[in-house]
Amino acid sequence: MMRPKGMLLKTLQRCRKGEGAAAVAPEGCLVVRVGPERERFVIRARWVNHPLFRGLLEEAERELGYGNGAGPLELPCEVEVFAEVVREVEEEEAETRRWCSFGRAGGGGGGGAGYHRVMS
User: Fold this and answer.
1) Residue 75: what pLDDT?
2) Rounded distance between C-alpha atoms, residue 41 and residue 99, angstroms
3) Of 23, 24, 47, 81, which cross-links 77 as Cys (Cβ 3.0–4.6 Å)?
4) Across residues 19-27, what is the average pLDDT?
5) φ and ψ at 113, to 5 degrees?
């Protein structure tokens, strides 16, 4: 039985095609609007696979539906909740880099935060 395309799949397809939010975000990133103020953030696209992020996506789907497929992904959670999820994901990535440094000279981590707030 075919399942309808979910928000996650639609978002990934938009990113791959370079449509909507992905057209203005750096490669490997996407734009999300967070909270009632719709603050704009650029995040790493791979984060949509993380269980904490999937929770935010499921909440968005319940509250907002699938949307029209144009423009940035909207997350209805408060910015503080979003920031906490980002911190958790970044901490897990940092821990993984510490223990799994395959192919890296010096075994060092990678650089920079996985998101940034974009002032409109």
Assistant:
1) 92
2) 29
3) 81
4) 60
5) -70, 155
